[in-house]
Design goal:
This protein is an alpha+beta fold. It has 4 helices and 11 strands, in the order βααααββββββββββ. The strands form 3 sheets. The chain has a 5-stranded antiparallel β-sheet, covered by helices on one side. A 4-stranded antiparallel β-sheet has the order 3-10-5-8, with no helix packed on it.
Length: 243
C-alpha cells in the first residue's frame, strides 16, 4: 500500500466535496432514524453511473498512480462511497478484497480518495504492512457487534505491523487486493468520508460472478476507451440516463 498521494486540491477538491455532499444528502435525508442514517451513508446507488465517479475514475492524477502499478491496460470496475458519520460505531473487520473478487490472478488495486481529513480518531482505514505477500488468508465469523462484513481474518496481530492511513482531504491511499485492512468505528465528532475506486489490470480474467451475483467485467469504465483492454474481456459501461 501507498499513503498520502496528492490528487485534488483547491477548487477541484471543493467541487468534488460539494458533489459528494449532495449524493450523501440524497441518501441520508430519507433515513427515519440515526441507525438508518449511518447505514445509508455507507452506500452509493449506481456508483459508476454518477458524474462524480466518472470524473474521478478518469482523473489524470488517478490514472497516473494506477498506471504506475498496473501498467497501461486497466479499467475501473467498481466504486464505493465510504462515509462514517460522527458517532457511527460501524467497523470494517480485517479482510482482503481478493477474498470477494473472482479473478484469475491478483491484479486489482483500490484507490481510496479522502474527502475529509482522516486519522485514528475518526476511523481511518488501517493496513497490515507486508500482508500482500502472504497470499489469500483464511476467514472466520466476525466478533464485531456493528460491522459491514460478516467474516474477518483472525490473529491479525501476528501478521505484521498495523499502519493507520492518515490522509489529508484530497489525498489518496492505494492498496493491493491481497493487503489485509480494516477500520474501526468513528467515535469522534468529525465525519470520515472518501471514495474507493477499484481498478483491475485488463490482463486478468473475471472467472465468474461474485457472491451477490455481480460479474466484475460486465460494465466497467475504460479510461482510455478500447485501448484500455485490447482483448475486449472487460465490457464498457453503458451509462443510464439521469445519473
Amino acid at each position: 500500500f501507498l499513503l498520502d498521494l496528492p490528487v485534488l486540491s483547491g477548487e477541484a477538491l471543493a467541487i468534488a466535496r460539494e458533489d459528494f455532499n449532495q449524493l450523501l444528502l440524497e441518501r441520508t435525508d430519507r433515513a427515519p432514524d440515526e441507525d438508518a442514517k449511518f447505514r445509508a451513508a455507507h452506500t452509493l446507488a449506481r456508483p459508476l453511473h454518477q458524474d462524480l465517479v466518472q470524473r474521478l475514475a478518469t482523473h489524470q492524477r488517478v490514472l497516473q498512480i494506477v498506471e504506475d502499478i498496473l501498467g497501461p491496460h486497466f479499467c475501473c470496475w467498481s466504486a464505493h462511497l465510504f462515509c462514517k458519520l460522527p458517532g457511527d460505531p460501524t467497523s470494517q473487520p480485517w479482510h482482503q478484497d481478493a477474498g470477494f473478487w473472482p479473478l484469475s490472478e491478483s491484479r486489482a488495486v483500490t484507490l481510496w480518495l479522502a474527502f475529509d481529513d482522516t486519522d485514528e480518531a475518526n476511523g481511518a482505514v488501517r493496513f497490515v504492512k507486508g500482508s500482500h505477500r502472504l497470499g489469500r488468508l483464511p476467514w472466520k465469523p466476525t466478533s464485531a457487534d456493528r460491522h459491514l462484513l460478516t467474516q474477518e481474518i483472525p490473529d491479525v496481530d501476528l501478521l505484521g505491523e498495523e499502519v493507520c492511513a492518515t490522509l489529508a482531504a484530497g489525498h489518496a491511499s492505494i492498496h493491493s487486493d491481497l493487503t489485509v485492512h480494516g477500520s474501526p468505528g468513528n467515535f469522534s465528532d468529525r465525519r470520515r468520508a472518501g471514495l474507493a475506486l477499484r481498478f483491475v489490470g485488463c490482463d486478468a480474467n473475471c472467472l465468474g460472478a461474485m457472491i451477490n451475483g455481480y460479474e466484475m467485467n460486465r460494465a466497467v469504465i475504460l479510461p482510455k476507451g478500447p485501448k484500455s483492454d485490447p482483448r475486449g474481456h472487460w465490457r464498457s459501461l453503458k451509462r443510464r440516463s439521469g445519473a
